[in-house]
Design a protein that fits this description.
With 272 residues, this protein is an all-alpha fold. The chain has 13 helices and no strands.
Length: 272
């Protein structure tokens, strides 16, 4: 692509440059969301396939059972998303080198009888190596650390290096639930909050505990056993106790607060 651009007139080169750079003005996540809309089971491409009768043809002649062609949540979708997002970082460095290339070298090779493919292989490509190396470096760094594309277009089923790093950091119950639900992560032990433990038990995401491996369970106070979300402690063991409260200065208020509503009670205002 960079070579073809370098062969065009100046005005057409400017147009191609604009077309390459234009998508970069849009946020990275928005561009990836756009591909989700295009590739999803009821997206633009599958709707087009239905309109031309391709899916019904596959169903009638080849026994195809689905009413869509699986495009999203595949390795191909991840590759497409990465190529689309990172292609400019490869094309532009090579293009920058090629437009500075001395045309007399190409003409000399042609005058000596070299065919087009040989001119490209022995003259143009070796001279464009600095741009190729620069492009590889610019593409490698973001592609090796990305995890958004694989999670959005691949549903987290195909792990990249960025996904493996991201899996080590879980910032909320919901983030942990999403990663476990997608099958992108598996853990022997997790520490969810009570409401998330209840949700995961109801969805069959937790395995029963083997108390032969937890001999110290008997040391846990009876008060903290058999919670409402796991009455027999079949799936969970109390790990920590967290509570919230109101701390107040007895010299600044007339009476002790008894509920959160006291925070908005005018009579509870600090004594001046």
């Amino acid at each position: 692509m960079a070579y073809l651009m370098s062969r065009l007139s100046a005005s057409k080169q400017s147009l191609c440059m604009m077309l390459i750079m234009l998508p970069m003005w849009i946020n990275f996540l928005l561009r990836t969301y756009a591909w989700m809309s295009i590739l999803e089971n009821n997206g633009f491409i599958n709707q087009f396939f239905r309109s031309i009768g391709l899916i019904s043809f596959l169903q009638s002649h080849f026994g195809y059972s689905l009413d869509y062609i699986l495009l999203i949540n595949t390795q191909g979708a991840i590759v497409l998303g990465m190529v689309y997002n990172f292609l400019p970082f490869m094309v532009l460095p090579i293009y920058t080198v090629l437009i500075k290339l001395d045309r007399k070298l190409i003409e000399a090779a042609q005058d000596l009888g070299a065919p087009t493919h040989l001119v490209f292989r022995r003259v143009i490509f070796p001279l464009s190596i600095p741009g190729v190396i620069s492009g590889i470096t610019m593409v490698f760094v973001p592609s090796v650390s990305t995890f958004v594309i694989s999670q959005m277009l691949g549903s987290g089923k195909n792990l990249l290096v960025g996904d493996l790093i991201d899996l080590q950091f879980i910032d909320s119950n919901e983030s942990m639930y999403a990663k476990l639900k997608s099958g992108a992560a598996n853990y022997d032990v997790i520490v969810p909050s009570d409401y998330m433990a209840a949700k995961m038990i109801a969805e069959g995401m937790l395995m029963p505990l083997n108390y032969d491996n937890i001999p110290n369970f008997q040391n846990i106070d009876e008060e903290y056993r058999n919670a409402d979300y796991d009455p027999e402690n079949a799936y969970t063991v109390p790990y920590m106790l967290c509570t919230t409260g109101i701390i107040y200065n007895t010299t600044m208020v007339n009476k002790a607060p008894t509920s959160w509503a006291d925070l908005w009670d005018p009579s509870m205002r600090a004594i001046s």
